[in-house]
Amino acid sequence: MPLSDLIDATNASLKTRGIRLKVEQRRQGLSLRGTWADAQGIRKQRRLPIGINATPAGLLQAETSAVAAWAAITSGTDPAAAIAQPTPEDSTSKTVGSVEDVIQSFQTDFWSTRARTAAAERTWERIANELQRLPSRVDLTLPLLEATICGRTQPDTRSRLEACKVYKRLALFAGLEGVAQLDRLRGTYEPAERDLPTDEQLIQFLDEVRPTKWGWVMAAAAVYGVRPAEVPSLVFNDDGTATAITLKRHGRKPTLRTCFALPSAWIDRWELQSIQIPNDARWTRPEDYSSDEGRRWVNAWRHGLRGKAVKQAIDQHLGEFDNVALRHCWAVRSISSGLPVSLCAKAMGHSVAVHEKQYHRWLAASTLQDALSRLDV
After folding, report:
1. Co-location of 164 and 207 in the same domain
2. Minimal CB count within 10 Å: which of 92, 128, 181, 373?
3. What is the per-residue pLDDT across 151-207, written as a single tens digit (0 to 9) for each?
4. Are strands 241-246 and 235-236 parallel, antiparallel or unpaired?
5. Does residue 161 share a domain with residue 41?
6. pTM of the entire structure?
7. Do residues 73 and 109 share a domain?
8. Radius of gyration over alpha carbons of the chain, in Å?
9. Integer Cα distance of 228 and 230 in angstroms
């Protein structure tokens, strides 16, 4: 294939990956062309010599240089410095093998430490979706990872955060140094805070939907604060507590925990002892649970929220709503009740650190209100 065709293919690949630079042949050498601002802030189209011969082998090096230069441009630094020949001390340009080879080793290592469960398969699928954005035939370097992150994602977005997490994991596996630079690209993304219904709104809603197909399920989730897929695992005790299976444990197997009704009066109000779970879903032991089955059941529940009667009740009493909100309402209710954070976190099946991070806004407000109530003003 003529070199000009190879150059066209390389430029098409760069464009697909969001790298707005082109490789050009200048006599017997290769250079890069693109638009960026210099140190004085003057933005215009420029040509950047890269000191690489115009050969097929040189073209692969030019592609790597384009990736490194684009990473520098997007971070506001000098692209010429980014493509300078690395010294032995230049840890950010350390070569550990081709992207294809490193990913293959990474995948082998991933499956060497976990069973091929449906949940693990989905986890690897999410990782692989990020990894496939990388060019396979070039050396894996930190500038390559930075350029791919900047070229394919927008700052302060969930996609940027996920890309940084996956590429950092790959870089650590490969032994690249300077990995903390990827943390710098994460930005300040945080999920939007929820506007949760009040207990009064929730009572009106559940009173209305309790007779419907998914009414018992929604009431049980609201009273015990469990995750949606944990509802079919509830086994009630006479003292207002219940046993549930704890899911979403980051690769660890499901386990049992004790949760409790809040308030306990709601057990009788919505007749929770009369268990009514659609689609015959029931898993009361960790070994009974299947993540695929749980996923299908939760999706069916989510679809059930679009039924006419339930949707009308949501629109009338709650506004924006999903089945996870019932669990968050329980957490806020526990904060308002003044119960110990450690107890509530344990009942919800996560750590105190996760509890404080997830519900920081309400915990902070509760602490402030309590302090103000103690002031003699």
Report:
1. no
2. 373
3. 788 888 889 999 999 999 999 999 988 888 888 888 888 766 667 889 999 999 999
4. antiparallel
5. no
6. 0.62
7. no
8. 27
9. 5
